[in-house]
Amino acid sequence: MIEYITMQKKYVVQKVEMKGKSGENSLVAVVGPTATGKSDLAIYLAREFDGEVINADSRQVYRYMDIGTAKLSWEELALVPHYLIDIINPDEDFSLAQYKEMATGKIDDIHERGKLPILAGGTGQYVRALLEGWGVPKVEPDLELRKKLEKKAAEGKADELYRELEEVDPEAARTIDPRNVRRVIRALEVSSQTGKPFSRLRTKTPPPYDTLIIGLTTDRKELYRRIDLRVDSMIENRLLDEVKKLKQMGYGADIPAMSSIGYKQIMMYLNDEISLESAIHQIKTETHRLVRRQYNWFSLSDERIKWLDIQDDFKEKARNLVAGFLST
C-alpha cells in the first residue's frame, strides 16, 4: 500500500508539470444532479492534477449524517484532501454566508499552496454563491419566527414552507434547494423582516477565479434508475440504524436537518407514521423531484457548463477538458 501511494504521488507530480501557465486563480467545479458521480470524478481529477476537493453539498456539512447524504467512505475521502464535510452538528445553524466565507478561505489556501481547488456538489446555491460572488444580506435572525417555522417543518410540513416561499419570493424558491430546510426558513425570515424578497437583497461581485465548470448528466430514465438503486443501497447499508442513532442522540424530527429527503421519511417510519415500503417510495419520488429542481440551477442550456454524459467515457473527457483549461 505504501508503495502504491508513493507511486501515485510521483504520478501526480508528473501531471502537475502539464499545468504550465494555469495561473494562481484556476478553479474547477463539478456540478449536476444527484447520483451522477460528481464526488468520484472530483477525486479522479484531484489525483490527476494535484487538486483538493471542496464540498458543495448542503447536507454533507453535517456530522453523523453519512448514509442518507451519500457521503464518500473514509477510505475514499483519504485519497485526496477534502474540505467542508462533517463540520457542524445536525442541530447547528449554518448559513449560506458562512459557507461562502469558509469555501472562499479554502480556495485561497489551496491556491497559496500551488494546488488546484475542485468544487464538487449538487447544491446550486452554494456553487453559484461562490462562482457568481453573491453578497449575502446580513439580517439579524428573528428567533421567534424561526422557532415557529422550524416547528412547522418538524411536523412534516417542510413542503408547505417551500410553497410559501414560492409565493412570496419565486426567484429565491427557484434557487434554494428544498432539502435545505434551513435555507428555506432563512429566506422566509429575511423576507418577513425586511418586507422585501430575499432574492432582491443579494448583490453580485464575481470573484477573481478563472473557472471551468463541468456538468454531469444523462437521460432522465437512467438517472432515476440510478437514484432508485442508490436508495435501495442506502437501506441495505443501514440507513435505518443511522436515523435511529441520530434519534437516540437527541436529533429528532424537530431538527431542520432531519427534515431532508431520506431522514424525514425514515424518521416517520420509526415514529410509526408510515410503513417502511411507503418511506422508501417517498424517498425515491422526492429525489426524482429534486433532480428536476437541480436542473433549474444547472441548466443544460447554460453555455458556461461543459456537460458530459455519464454513460460515455466521461472521466477521460473531463480530464481532457481540465488539461486544456490549465494549459491556456
**Sheet/helix structural class:** alpha/beta
User: Helix fraction?
Assistant: 40-55%
Number of strands: 8
Q: What is the string of helix and strand elements?
A: HEHEHEHEHEHHHEEHHHHEH
| Overall pLDDT score | 89
CATH superfamily placement of the largest domain: P-loop containing nucleotide triphosphate hydrolases
Share of β-strand residues: 5-15%
Structural Rg = 20 Å
Structure description:
This protein has helices at 2-16, 38-48, 74-77, 96-112, 124-131, 143-168, 170-175, 181-194, 220-236, 239-248, 263-270, 276-297, 314-326, and strands at 26-31, 51-55, 82-83, 116-120, 134-135, 203-204, 210-217, 305-309. It is α/β, with parallel strands linked by helices and 328 residues long. The chain has two domains: 24-135 and 204-236 and 297-326, Rossmann fold (3-Layer(aba) Sandwich), CATH 3.40.50; 143-201, Histone, subunit A, CATH 1.10.20.140. Strands 3-2-4-1-7-8 form a six-stranded parallel beta sheet, with helices on both faces. Strands 5-6 form a two-stranded antiparallel sheet. The two termini are 36 Å apart.
